């Protein structure tokens, strides 16, 4: 393949991976690990959300959730504008999507996103909510940013993440967590090694954290580094034992400091989108969100050509998607995507 074809393949892999991990993670979303096992045994195929799961009940087998849906809303806004649109424009785009899903009435949105978007919809100041947002709503939808901005443009990438995130999440932990996911995707798209991807994430973390409202939340970089040290020091019987360690040690809840760190850990351990999706689906906790983030990274590393063809065909048919066509648009947009230099520190 030519360099352009490789770039397109990796970007398509990132978007497809995001959808794959999101959709496979539907059934056990926000259930404890033991409940997922008791109900499903082992999830390795796409299933309907259970009627008694108050979040997953809205989704049928193979359909992506609000994670990928918001990512696509953001991506379309970025592609159309050639930059990050003003907060009001992004807010209106997200609000239109929420209303189309009756999302303010049903249990579709996370607490931070719901509170801030409701404020935007009423024409109120949303910052009282965005400056307290510790949940993973910014990180779950950020993978497309890693497809648009080159891995070595640290300030541009961090600032793009900030501008996309502050619509609903403006804290140091939310922005730095989202930036680490975007960086991992961008570095994987560039063909960086796994060790280099970690170095790149560690580099962007303080840059992005400084752009957010200071909080008491734990550092994702520190927690991920601690996990890798402990993981390397032990011998693991199998992937499920490693999964249990992630669940117990890092946590898999909706807080950015838990689920983003866990997603990075899954990507690091599995290094394969299908394996990462299955691990997240059976993990317990915010299974679809972790799957979307971890598999976007793994998908970018493998490229669409490295993902299971039958699953990709099924996801495209089920969700009316064309990952290659979407990647073609992103590749074209990378050449001209820019930020207003006057608003970018140190530009």
From TrEMBL:
Binding site for Mg(2+): 65-67, 286, 288-289
Magnesium is among the record's keywords: yes
Co-factor: note: Binds 2 magnesium ions per subunit.
Pfam families linked: ADP_ribosyl_GH (PF03747)
InterPro entries: ADP-ribosylglycohydrolase, Ribosyl_crysJ1, Ribosyl_crysJ1_sf
GO MF, any single term: metal ion binding
Family that this chain belongs to: Belongs to the ADP-ribosylglycohydrolase family.
Name of this chain's protein: ADP-ribosylglycohydrolase
């Amino acid at each position: 393949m030519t360099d352009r074809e490789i770039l397109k393949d990796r970007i398509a892999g990132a978007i497809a991976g995001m959808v794959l991990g999101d959709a496979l993670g539907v059934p056990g979303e926000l259930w404890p690990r033991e409940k997922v096992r008791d109900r499903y045994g082992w999830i390795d195929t796409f299933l309907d959300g259970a009627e008694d799961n108050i979040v997953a009940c809205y989704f049928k087998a193979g359909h992506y959730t609000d994670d990928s849906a918001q990512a696509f809303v953001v991506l379309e806004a970025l592609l159309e504008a050639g930059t990050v649109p003003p907060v009001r424009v992004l807010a209106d785009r997200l609000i239109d999507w929420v209303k189309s899903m009756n999302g303010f009435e049903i249990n579709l949105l996370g607490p931070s996103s719901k509170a801030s978007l409701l404020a935007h919809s009423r024409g109120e100041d949303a910052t009282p909510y965005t400056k307290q947002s510790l949940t993973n709503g910014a990180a779950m939808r950020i993978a497309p940013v890693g497809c648009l901005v080159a891995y070595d443009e640290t300030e541009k990438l961090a600032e793009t993440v900030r501008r996309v995130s502050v619509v609903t999440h403006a804290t140091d932990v939310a922005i730095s967590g989202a930036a680490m996911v975007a960086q991992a995707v961008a570095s994987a798209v560039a063909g960086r090694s796994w060790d280099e991807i970690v170095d790149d994430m560690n580099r962007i973390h303080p840059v992005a954290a400084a752009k957010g409202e200071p909080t008491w939340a734990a550092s994702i970089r520190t927690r991920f580094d601690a996990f890798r040290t402990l993981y390397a020091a032990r011998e693991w019987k199998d992937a499920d034992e490693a999964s249990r360690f992630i669940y117990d040690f890092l946590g898999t809840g909706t807080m950015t400091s838990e689920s983003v760190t866990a997603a990075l850990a899954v990507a690091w351990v599995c290094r394969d989108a299908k394996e990462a999706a299955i691990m997240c689906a059976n993990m317990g906790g915010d299974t679809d969100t972790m799957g979307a983030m971890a598999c976007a990274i793994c998908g970018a590393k493998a490229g669409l050509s490295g993902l299971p063809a039958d699953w990709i065909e099924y996801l495209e048919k089920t969700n009316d998607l064309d990952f290659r066509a979407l990647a073609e648009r992103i590749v074209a947009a990378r050449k001209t995507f820019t930020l207003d230099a006057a608003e970018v520190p140190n530009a």
